[in-house]
Amino acid sequence: MVTSTKGDNGESKKKKIDGNKDVDPQLWHAVAGTTVQIPQVNSKIFYFPQGHAEHAYEPVNFPADINIPSKIPCRVAAVHYRADPRTDLVYAKLRLVPLQISQVSIDEDNVAGVDDMSVTKNQYQSYTKTLSESDINKSGGFSCPKKCAETMFPPLDYSDQLPSQDIYLMDVHGEMWKFRHVYATRNILTTGWSDFVTNKQLELGDSLVFVKAANSDLHIGIRRSKKRNDCRFNFPSKRKPETGTLLQPPYGGLSSSLGNERRIGDKVIGIGKVKAEDVIEAVKLGVNMQPFDVVYYPRVGTPEFFVKTSLIRTALQIGWDCGMRFQMAIETDSSKINWLMGTIASVEAADPAWPDSLWRLLQVTWDNPDLVTNTKRLNPWQVETLRYMSSSKELGLPQLPTFPMDGQFSMPYLPNYFQTPKGPIMYLPETSMPYFQQPFNRDDATTLTTVSNNPACRKVPLVRGWSVIPRTNAKKDASEGETVEIENSVSSSKEAA
Amino acid sequence: MVTSTKGDNGESKKKKIDGNKDVDPQLWHAVAGTTVQIPQVNSKIFYFPQGHAEHAYEPVNFPADINIPSKIPCRVAAVHYRADPRTDLVYAKLRLVPLQISQVSIDEDNVAGVDDMSVTKNQYQSYTKTLSESDINKSGGFSCPKKCAETMFPPLDYSDQLPSQDIYLMDVHGEMWKFRHVYATRNILTTGWSDFVTNKQLELGDSLVFVKAANSDLHIGIRRSKKRNDCRFNFPSKRKPETGTLLQPPYGGLSSSLGNERRIGDKVIGIGKVKAEDVIEAVKLGVNMQPFDVVYYPRVGTPEFFVKTSLIRTALQIGWDCGMRFQMAIETDSSKINWLMGTIASVEAADPAWPDSLWRLLQVTWDNPDLVTNTKRLNPWQVETLRYMSSSKELGLPQLPTFPMDGQFSMPYLPNYFQTPKGPIMYLPETSMPYFQQPFNRDDATTLTTVSNNPACRKVPLVRGWSVIPRTNAKKDASEGETVEIENSVSSSKEAA
DNA sequence: TTGTAGGCCTCGCGCCGACAA
DNA sequence: TTGTCGGCGCGAGGCCTACAA
């Protein structure tokens, strides 16, 4: 008997994943995370070359012969929600049309609706779990948290001795995956899980996003661990449709349609990043007022490099200064939202090449520095200033001994802060002057308020002609001085007026 | 205990195979096969665009706006013997410098030596075996023919109950592979074989070439099955240096330096072929008298598209005509040389676009058509005419009932052949006239001899001014009328004067 | 509740003897 | 002599229970 172990088993069923196929926007947002903000079509944004460059997997050397502004006003002409065929990473492709400065100051925010997602946000439920060592190990299955199983999967028949059912999950490409779901003191995905791990090349720290649509269809998305962004990624050589795990239509082929990969040996690096030349090309087109496309992979720690003009206007209304207290929402690996608190250490352009740039203008120190790694500089529109605090406990002072800080910021700023407990609050006069493009020239600026005596923390006025008014739009209490976890069904409401 | 099953095991040891590194010429020829003829540096050849096009993995559409001759005289400026990093296929890269026609007719064959290989040919021994189903099966090892083991491997100690030793074979890239060689009623390679099969992606019908150098170093080469030329090839995703089979230096990375691959899904197609644009580029340069490079993968059934001018001159001395008997040496999968016999069915340009082309000028019928598939047209310099035969048995007549032929050639040509048993024999007058570039115009030609009455087999004179002389350079007897097998240590001597 | 360890079973691989072409 | 089959043993994978954090 000849056993034909070789041969093209299931080969004919293979088909390329279409890398240009759009993903359902709601599914996309669920997988990307609720803090990811993609501007609506026809809204107006600022494009930041510096921010774009942070998404390249290689250093970006901008051409020195052309004058590149720190931000370029654009209209969002198109938005495509997509997913990388190999990594399952979701990304957005935006077509941006540069605007004249005169087009920015008028007619702002007259796009209908606040956020194209907010109206339909409730139709999708999601649950995110970061994979543990045991989940990845070949010896076992996937430990499914009780809440995940209860909210996502159909109910099991617990009268059975070993309740079990088949679960069908569709990935972002539309491929269906079958898992055996058993309940034995806890919920476990067994058969099918190992193939999924192998096929998606899941590693410790990666996250799985279970998404249930309104019609109870189940989807599965992947967020790669932050550590893998700069790391290598195995190029999958072969799917195993013969195991029956991957169901019809079994797209198994690999697309190289993106074409922005770099390799070391047989591993692909630069996952979720773009080519430096793409950034330069975009900037060149933008400078020349030509429409251009940008690709944006959402990733924690690298903010969007396209920001709604209204957001920036709001951020500019604040007189940012050293010692100011703020909070910022970050999404954890398991889709929970942490409100982290910190203090502004300095207000200074991040890159001397763009002395007037707002990009990562704020250098900050965190109350709990171990919760945020490698994020020392923030954009003004990323944070919310804290208006008041009633005691030293809320400032996170009790944590100081547990989380020792750098000597340079250990104590000096605290006395200064209490000298001006409310900080400088400013507003932007209602004028149609195109203030966004005004030069940020320190010598030309007017000194407003001195908050700190710390020599490393010079006061830096943002715009001439601002005055101080009380500010009342702090929305969340930072009670107890520790991070607040919000369930993933609650979205950040940073933009609410 | 945490078992780190994942991780980059042996990753740091990986290194790219240098696709530009030359292979030892003797090893190269042993792997390529003894019938492969690569011209010597500084020899003069004709380059055939038609032949080159046969090596493309896609149809070649030559530009219609330029006049492309059927052959371009060239000097061989450089020869590189190389091996494909992925498939282990050997190939030659030749730099050709186009010549004026006046440079061809004079000073022919005054290159020192006959063949740069012939002088050192005896220093390498080789043995070729085509892989059987059992060799490929995962269940077993490699059945090593007795002769292979005896001539290639060190002798075993047969006093042991289970004689065994480790065999080290170096592939064409310089990678060393270790095999366990045991003798149990026959020679078998066990441990290490399976990994080798997986890594080299060996399939049924592929051939292994064992080569022993003069210093007893062992090498291993691969010839892919003819069937795989147009088929898909798995892109190897991962070597397994951790098994210890692949020894230091363990180049494990995959090179994409050739860059001439085409893919369907995760499989590479066009193995051992080139891009159509490369052919067109070469032809364009050649037409403009610019030096150009060609890549040649030796393959059974696709003759070299660069042919020594002396070979063509010899071939042109024969007045090819229908009904002529010939023999041709072909190398089998296991490096044995078969002398096949056949009859010329017609002499007609293969492609109407090149009516004067010699390329595949001869349409032939084989005595044993099942031994040669898909080879109906041959180049005149590929075959040797048979000068005489003593009985009908030598014509292969007894085989006719066993191998039924098409009705169109079944009988009619036989009586005609016997009418002119010796066929027209011609010679080329010794003249320095540049006859190679003379137009091949049928209307202008002089009729010499009529050999056949078969209407499909019109007499076609090749060159004006030829006359018939006796020809005595038939070197091999086709005794018994069947194919003669010659051991692989014996090379074809077709070129001997 | 959920991460991790381990028992135990299955299956595929791989070595080698048996048999046959 | 050598291709193929099959027994047998080993080890990895995979399912599920036990235990602990």
Kindly list the characteristics that best describe this protein.
5-stranded antiparallel β-sheet, 13% helix, 23 strands, DNA-binding, disordered N terminus, 497 residues, alpha+beta, homodimer, globular
Structure in words:
Chains A, B: Belongs to the ARF family. Chains A, B: Residues 486-497 have a biased composition (Polar residues). Chains A, B: GO terms for molecular function: DNA binding. Two copies of one chain form a homodimer. The first copy, chain A, is an alpha+beta fold and 497 residues long. Chain A has nine helices and 23 strands. In chain A, the strands form six sheets. In chain A, strands 16, 17, 18, 19, 20 and 23 form a six-stranded antiparallel beta sheet that branches. Chain A is globular and about 70 Å long. The N and C termini of chain A lie far apart (75 Å). At the A-B interface, loops of A face loops of B. Chain A binds a DNA duplex (21 and 21 nucleotides) through helix 4.
